[in-house]
Design goal:
single chain, 154 residues, alpha/beta, TIM Barrel, 5 helices, 4 strands, 9% strand
Amino acid sequence: MKSFTRVTENVPALRGTRRGYGTEIHSGRFNHTKPGETIYSPPNRIMNMIRQFPKMKVVALHLGGFYMLDEAERELIGKSNVLIDTTWPPALKELGSDTLTNIVNKHGPDKVCFGTDFPLADMAKDSQFIESLSIPDAAKERMLGENFRELVGL
């Protein structure tokens, strides 16, 4: 299954993002990716694109790097013009509450969106997991809906 978006830094279609349009990008790799296989949208390539289009609103799916969280932390986490999404199949709980809480605290709960990708996981369980985190209720509310509503102008 090759469903990850290919990110190239010189895609003409991305020039429209200068007008404030946003885009979601699958980030990271599959858990079964073998050494030497192509990784279409690693965090460093996403960051290269953001540098070229600094006004672009980006939602980097899978916390900025599916099975590449160390690189996501170096490249994307904490950047002001990047939102991250919490979709993490098969379940967000697999990351553990400490890992997710650390990511949220480093990136800022105002830049984390819940489940904007195709529902590859049980969304009810993932939202309950977020509710269980030791972060302020206001942060949870932002993550579970307010951030995305602001992104799309609702």
